[in-house]
Amino acid sequence: MIGSNVMGTEHPSIMRAEEDFLPWEDFKPLIDQLWTACQRLDCTKAREVLLRAVAGYSPPTKEVEDLVWCHRNSGARASLATNVTALEPRRLNPPAERPH
Predict the structure, then answer these.
(1) Helix (H) or strand (E) holding 67
(2) Cα 62 to Cα 24: distance, rounded to the nearest angstrom
(3) Structurally, how many domains does the chain consist of?
(4) Does residue 13 form part of some domain?
(5) Can you give the pLDDT of all 100 residues of the chain as single tens digits?
(6) How far apart are CA 67 and CA 45, in angstroms?
């Protein structure tokens, strides 16, 4: 739970919170923006949408920490850890022709 308005229920182990929410007509454009940012691998934009939309969202750092984003924006090949193998797509055997 993000909200601070937490209260008990009839069950001692179950809590509930009344948290802020957005009406659908405000929420839908934000989800569309977030979806577009994710499809474009635009972490900065996705982070901006979350900061605007989610009350209480506070990422641990001010910088985007995403290896794909860093690679795309550095202009250089991201260094891989020594225990990671880069995979290249390839087909080992061409598909066999089926008899007619």
Answers:
(1) helix 67-74
(2) 29
(3) 1
(4) no
(5) 455 677 888 888 888 877 777 889 999 999 999 999 999 989 889 999 998 888 778 887 787 777 776 777 775 444 545 666 767 766 666 666 666 6
(6) 16
Domain that holds residue 66: 22-74
Give CA separation, 77 vs 15, 44, 62, 80, 85, in Å.
48, 20, 23, 9, 14
pTM over 0.85: no
User: What three-state secondary structure class fits 72?
Assistant: helix
Residue 97 counted as domain residue: no
CA atoms within 13 A on the CB side of 50: 14
Q: Domain for residue 5, yes or no?
A: no
User: What b/e readout covers 14-43, taking b as 16+ CB neighbours within 10 angstroms?
Assistant: eeeeeeeeeeeeeeeeeeebbeebeeeebb
**Is residue 12 domain-resident?**
no
Q: Is 46 exposed, middle or buried (0-12, 13-18, 19+ CB in 10 A)?
A: buried
